[in-house]
Sequence to fold (191 residues):
Amino acid sequence: LFRQGLSLVLDFSHLSFDEKMSYIRKLLPLAAKYRRDRGYPHSILIDESHYFLNEEIEGDMLDPELGSYILVTYRPSMLPDKVIRNVGVLVATRITDSKEVDAISGFKDPDSADNWYAILANLETTEAVLLPPTEEACGKPIRFSVVPRLTKHVRHRSKYFENRLRSDQAFVYTKHGFAVGQPVYTLHELA
Fold:
């Protein structure tokens, strides 16, 4: 996994939640150790980080002293304070849930709280905002336009189509209220 000069994307979408957690609990401390010892990987991006970095996060999963983490989440309220407090750059797209705004509010000037809610709730889909503690924000939200996508957005199409369901979630064909045939565990099988 850790070779200088390579970029690597790990797709956990076909793993169960427990398998994802087990893997990430092994991988993140190892990546931090490599970064501390060798200087790479340069950046570690964790998408849907709220699933992996919760209150039970072990102390060595992230090494905040090293930086280099890019956390992507639509639920900052689920991240522990110790993770939020180590954020160096904060970029947000539209947020309408005040609970989620409150989760990142530790960075804001109390006098501008209402302004944050208004700005975040009224962003267009083509906009984002650079927020404090980001140094370049100079203590105030900076609204900007996002460059249009270069590729077509295909949201989790295969993730949900191929992901195997637990046995208690399987599709079951019935006739007059009685199960017939074998249960179906993926949308692909159902199709």
